[in-house]
Every structure is written in C-alpha cells, then in structure tokens.
Amino acid sequence: ATKEFAPVASFAAGDWMIYAPFNTNVKTIKEFVAYAKSKSANKPRHMSVGGLNHMLLSLVGKGAGIEFEEIRYKTSAEAVAAIVAGDGDITINSIAGFEGYMNANQLRPIATLSAQRSVFKPEVPTVMGVSNSK
What we know:
There is one protein chain. With about 130 residues, this protein is an alpha+beta fold. It is built from 4 helices and 5 strands, in the order E-H-E-H-E-H-E-H-E. The protein is globular and about 50 Å long.
C-alpha cells in the first residue's frame, strides 16, 4: 500500500500561472471564462507541449466548464512564440519560465493556480472561487 512509499525529495516547485496574450482585453480568469463561453462556434485555443501544463489547464477548463482546442507544439519556445503572436487564447507555465515575457508586456498573468497569491506577483489573483456556475 501507500505506506510502503515515502517522498524523499522534491525536484520542482514554483508558482504556476495562467497567461493570456498581452494585447487581449482579458485581464482576469473570470474575464477569460466569460470570453471562452461566449465563443459559441470556436473553442478557445490553448498552447501546449503536453505534460503538466496541459494537464493543469485541462483541469482548470473542467472546473470552469470550458472545452479547449489544444494547439500542440514540439517545444515550449514554439508554444510561447505562438501565444505572444496572438495565435492562441491562453497558456499555462511556471512564473520562472515566463517572467521575461511578463516584464516585456508580451504575456499577461491572469491567475495563479496556488491557493494563495504568489509572493512574486501578489497582484495576480488565484483561480480559487472560479467555477462552472453560470
């Protein structure tokens, strides 16, 4: 059973955030949910290379009642370039991976996945309280 295993080390930690292109009107996760639900014919596009960022955004979508069109890329660099260019609506990554894009006003963090606000970007709210309610 699970008592036979115990964690011995942590290999990754950090704040995961949801980002929208800076040139969009979406500034909060609630605005994104409203925008996504208003796209009747088209699903909002999220940029992904698979892995943890894809899984986390899928969980956010499920919680908010949104189905995404996933745009897959081979590398994170390609996915970032696409979202910065406005080819997608949303992406997710650690704050460390996207700090330069935030500082250059190319990506806007709209929510953190933590239960508490990030100490690095305390102005960005959490996704807590965003649900599937209409």
